């Protein structure tokens, strides 16, 4: 009996708790979240998962990786793919991010396009919607950030956004407030095919720990700096040591910027800002890893790295991040 359970579990037909998946009723598949920068894709992913896994900020290009999170329930497994915001490219990095986002539309079951309720539907939204036409996946229009819209604004956005494409369903929600996130999950469930669990229960995020660490560090820089600094930052984790007895993590990471002046801003007066950001990142990492963390940050200058495709790939940004 134990051997049979192991075989079923390996085939995605049994859960870790001993429950079995009925392949005729259980649904599973992939949904890509897409939209303009800051449309709320990462915030929605975090709300669905019930914890902070993807970084968020008000800075364009916050998301630089295609990022997969696995949502499990008794009747479904939904693999969400978060993507960089689609925008007019102005350097090699932004071109790479656009390529990554568009490739994430291939071979998925559902595409969810987010439109920000607090901003007028514009040419950027029209361009994003035009990219969806060639794909056969079911398409859900998501009016996001409903909490930020003025009275009646969600209805106006909905009316305009409906004209962008032929939608299979429409959802209005506020991921930040938790409003109608369940409605989004149900809408996706309705379009997923029958299938097994593609990932073991509890997988959470299909990303190397080095990527998650680098992203949490970069988020703190986005939240604590302004102007050109956030766009010019790349983070690379050089080493992670884990004590096998205590689980204590020692992490060494390098923050790259493009100019000496940016390096000074990141470090701050007598190292005050980098210390603050390191503390904030360490707290998030301890919550994520469930263990104590020591974080060692270094700042280096690498001029014009955003124009260097090889360096972009070293950071794993855009389509360079393997899925």
Characterize this entry briefly.
The chain has 323 residues and is an alpha/beta fold. The protein has helices at residues 2-10, 41-49, 92-103, 123-130, 153-162, 181-191, 209-224, 260-267, 272-289, 309-315, and strands spanning 27-35, 67-73, 76-82, 110-116, 138-144, 169-172, 234-242, 249-257, 293-301. A six-stranded mixed sheet has the order 2-3-1-4-5-6, with helices on both faces. Strands 7-8-9 form a three-stranded mixed sheet.
Structural features:
single chain; 323 residues; alpha/beta; six-stranded mixed beta sheet; three-stranded mixed beta sheet; 9 strands; 33% helix; 21% strand; globular
What report would you give on this structure?
The protein is an alpha/beta fold. The protein is 33% helix and 21% strand. The chain is built from 10 helices and 9 strands. Strands 2-3-1-4-5-6 form a 6-stranded mixed beta sheet, with helices on both faces. Strand 5, helix 5 and strand 6 form a beta-alpha-beta unit. Helix 7 packs across helix 9. The radius of gyration is 21 Å and the shape is globular. The model has no long low-confidence stretch (mean pLDDT 86).
Strand content: 15-25%
Helical residue percent band = 25-40%
Average pLDDT over all residues = 86
Strand order of the largest sheet: 2-3-1-4-5-6
Question: Would you spell out the secondary-structure blueprint of this structure?
Answer:
Layout: H1 2-10, E1 27-35, H2 41-49, E2 67-73, E3 76-82, H3 92-103, E4 110-116, H4 123-130, E5 138-144, H5 153-162, E6 169-172, H6 181-191, H7 209-224, E7 234-242, E8 249-257, H8 260-267, H9 272-289, E9 293-301, H10 309-315
Parallel strand pairs: 1-3, 1-4, 4-5, 5-6, 8-9
Antiparallel strand pairs: 2-3, 7-8
């Amino acid at each position: 009996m134990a051997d049979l359970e192991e075989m079923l579990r390996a085939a995605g037909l049994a859960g870790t708790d001993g429950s079995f998946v009925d392949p005729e009723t259980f649904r599973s598949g992939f949904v890509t979240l897409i939209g303009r920068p800051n449309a709320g894709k990462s915030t929605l992913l975090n709300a669905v998962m019930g914890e902070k896994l993807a970084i968020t900020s008000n800075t364009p290009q916050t998301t630089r990786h295609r990022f997969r999170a696995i949502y499990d329930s008794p009747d479904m497994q939904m693999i969400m793919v978060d993507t960089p915001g689609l925008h007019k490219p102005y350097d090699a990095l932004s071109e790479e991010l656009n390529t990554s986002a568009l490739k994430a539309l291939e071979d998925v079951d559902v595409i969810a396009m987010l439109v920000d309720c607090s901003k007028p539907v514009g040419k950027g939204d029209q361009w994003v919607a035009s990219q969806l036409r060639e794909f056969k996946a079911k398409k859900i229009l998501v009016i996001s950030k409903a909490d930020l819209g003025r009275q009646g604004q969600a209805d106006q956005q909905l009316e305009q956004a409906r004209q962008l494409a032929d939608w299979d369903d429409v959802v209005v929600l506020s991921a930040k407030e938790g409003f109608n996130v369940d409605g989004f999950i149900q809408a996706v469930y309705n379009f997923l095919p029958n299938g097994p669990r593609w990932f073991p229960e509890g997988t959470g995020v299909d990303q190397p720990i080095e990527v998650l660490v680098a992203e949490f560090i970069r988020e703190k820089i986005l939240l604590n700096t302004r102007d050109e600094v956030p766009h010019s930052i790349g983070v690379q984790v050089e080493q992670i040591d884990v004590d096998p007895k205590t689980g204590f993590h020692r992490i060494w990471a390098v923050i790259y910027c493009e100019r000496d002046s940016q390096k000074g801003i990141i470090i701050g007066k007598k190292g005050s800002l980098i210390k603050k950001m390191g503390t904030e990142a360490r707290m998030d990492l301890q919550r994520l890893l469930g263990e104590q963390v020591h974080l060692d940050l270094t700042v280096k200058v690498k001029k014009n790295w955003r124009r260097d495709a090889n360096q972009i790939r070293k950071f794993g940004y855009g389509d360079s991040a393997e899925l």
